[in-house]
Design a protein that fits this description.
The protein has helices at residues 41-49, 71-80, 96-101, 110-114, 120-132, 148-161, 178-195, 206-212, 235-242, 247-250, 289-294; strands at residues 3-12, 15-25, 30-34, 56-61, 64-65, 81-84, 166-169, 198-203, 215-220, 223-228. The chain is an alpha/beta fold. A hairpin with a 2-residue loop joins strand 4 and strand 5 (64-65). Helix 5 crosses helix 6 (148-161). The longest helix is centred in the middle third of the chain and has 18 residues, at 178-195. The model is unreliable at 265-295 (pLDDT under 50).
């Protein structure tokens, strides 16, 4: 099913963060949304997941008007439209396996969720997702002891066990070094190509979008100013997105890039295998207050 945005606008008081966006994203496409800070990328993704509401316009998925959903129907949509955040939103004091199983909460009754009761099938599902992301060995470690790249892969595994129809990733590599950023992007592309899931991800650098995405949407001041293939994203088009002064940042490794001389695969069947990386460093990260309450 396609994900369709019709005249979608979001205002915060007098500030227009997203302005009259019209997009149709076919099922199974991997879309990179690019633009400078403040362009409206994160606001757009949060409206798709209904973490914030639209001010005007409609978001349609199949026969669902996502922008009008309430109650259980809204919770069902947030289960079907998994969100991956820049800061991972794991619960550091819980082990990795439990963090992944938290992705099953929207599939469960309120009572079993409160009692934190997970079935053997759900545990097996979580372990399989961790194995796919190359970090099954860390299943019993506390999430807070993992490196940033490993934590983001745990977050992706948590999204997978939701069994979603759409995955949204909000700046998933912004806090990672180039090697870990590459692994995370390869993981998202692998899920997109092998599972046929629609993936929409906000990105900051042009080389990452060109390498991993089928389609690139460029935003500037809340408006879509580019919508095309990686090959169509020329320097002239990039200047419309970032402006002349922003071009250096758009290509900057310091921002976080995945530019490690990895060629774009010629077809989906040739996607590279995800390679596990054992990071020695330990980092501390911001967590989600909502997930803290679950524990």
């Amino acid at each position: 099913m396609s994900l369709v945005l019709k005249n979608v606008t979001r205002r915060f008081d007098r500030h227009v963060a997203v302005n009259n966006v019209n997009l149709e994203i076919p099922e199974g496409q991997m879309v990179g949304v690019i633009g400078a800070s403040g362009a409206g990328k994160s606001t757009l993704l949060r409206m798709l997941n209904r973490l914030i509401d639209t001010s005007n316009g409609d978001i349609i998925f199949g026969d669902l008007n996502v922008s009008a959903l309430k109650g259980q129907q809204l919770r069902n949509w947030q289960r079907d439209c998994a969100m991956i955040f820049q800061q991972f939103n794991l619960v550091p004091r819980l082990d990795v396996l439990t963090n992944v199983m938290l992705g099953r909460l929207n599939h469960r009754s309120t009572l079993t969720s409160l009692l934190n009761m997970f079935s053997d099938e759900e545990r097996a599902m979580a372990l399989q997702a961790l194995d796919r992301l190359g970090i099954a060995k860390a299943a019993l470690q506390k999430a807070g002891t993992l490196s940033g790249g490993q934590q983001q892969r745990v977050a992706i595994a948590r999204a997978l066990v939701q069994q979603p129809k759409v995955i949204l990733a909000d700046e998933p590599i912004a806090s990672l070094d180039p090697r870990n950023a590459q692994i995370v992007m390869e993981s998202l592309r692998d899920i997109n190509q092998k599972d046929g899931l629609t993936v929409v991800t906000n990105l900051h650098t042009l080389d990452t979008a060109r390498t991993y995405c089928d389609r690139i949407v460029g935003m500037q001041a809340g408006t879509v100013v580019f919508d095309g293939t990686p090959e169509e994203l020329t320097n002239t088009a990039a200047q419309r997105i970032y402006g002349v002064e922003g071009m250096a940042e758009a290509f900057s490794e310091a921002v976080t890039s995945t530019s490690l001389d990895i060629p774009r695969p010629p077809k989906p069947g040739d996607a590279p295998k995800i390679v596990p990386v054992e990071a020695a460093d330990v980092e501390q990260h911001t967590t989600s207050p909502e997930l803290e309450k679950v524990s």
